[in-house]
Amino acid sequence: MDTDLVAALDIGGTKIAGALVDGDGTLLVRAQRPTPAREGAEAVMGAVDEVLGELTASPLWARAGSAGIGSAGPVDAGAGTVSPVNVPGWRGFPLVERVQKTIGGLPVALVGDGVAMTAAEHWLGAARGYDNALCLVVSTGVGGGLVLGGSLHPGPSGNAGHIGHISVDLDGDPCPCGARGCVERIASGPNIARRALADGWLPGPDGDATAAAVAAAARAGDPVATASYERAAQALAAGIAATATLVEIDIAVIGGGVAGAGDVLFTPLRRSLADYATLSFVRGLTVAPAVMGTDAGLVGAAAAAIALR
């Protein structure tokens, strides 16, 4: 029988999603479970197995020839293990081996979630047609991935392009990763909200103190909220410019919940980029919002699986 489909898994701290995907990137069968992130390793793997169980029960499963996993990181693609920061029960967890056991030994590709999003945006999204791209996920954390010379560049461990932990403020706040002044420590959603609150921004009557609420306040003209987004944009611009200078990218694609702020983020980001991306070969860099949305992880995991063929 023709094995023209791939299985895809998107594993994060909130949900575990799975799909059977065809060669055009269409998701034909879907399954999803909440991630029991505060429970032990086997409870989390149990949720993965339930998702895979739904996929293998489909009549289309016989057409699946490989599987791809996009996981919150860090991941170690060489060892087939994952240690997601937001899933404490998994440290060096042998995810590839366990998934292979569940799906009957099919080949499995593992990439970090930022790399998966990059694969999706390059295949079907905002980076399509670009040979050199950086894609960022700006959300609870800041992740990313690279396309170089027309191909996904995950690096030996599957983490290349992890822009969130480039230091852009040498004497800045300590980051949970152990460094100081990382892009993530300044530009992630929780840190945008934390800085706005520390500088005197007050949530509305509903008490919503998320980055989305800060964006709404900035849109309404609140100067403290605006300043917090401008600082985040500056950190992202510095990280993007450093990456562009190092590897010569043509486009930076930005997705994740924080990108939902729209012009509140993108206007100061483009302005700051002009201050940092100053050399002749990086001045023409395009910045665009991601378009693949919540399916990016699954589509990108499928792209990684297709590459195994």
TrEMBL record:
<comment type="similarity">
    <text>Belongs to the ROK (NagC/XylR) family.</text>
</comment>
<dbReference type="Pfam" id="PF00480">
    <property type="entry name" value="ROK"/>
</dbReference>
<protein>
    <recommendedName>
        <fullName>ROK family protein</fullName>
    </recommendedName>
</protein>
<dbReference type="InterPro" id="IPR043129">
    <property type="entry name" value="ATPase_NBD"/>
</dbReference>
<dbReference type="InterPro" id="IPR049874">
    <property type="entry name" value="ROK_cs"/>
</dbReference>
<dbReference type="InterPro" id="IPR000600">
    <property type="entry name" value="ROK"/>
</dbReference>
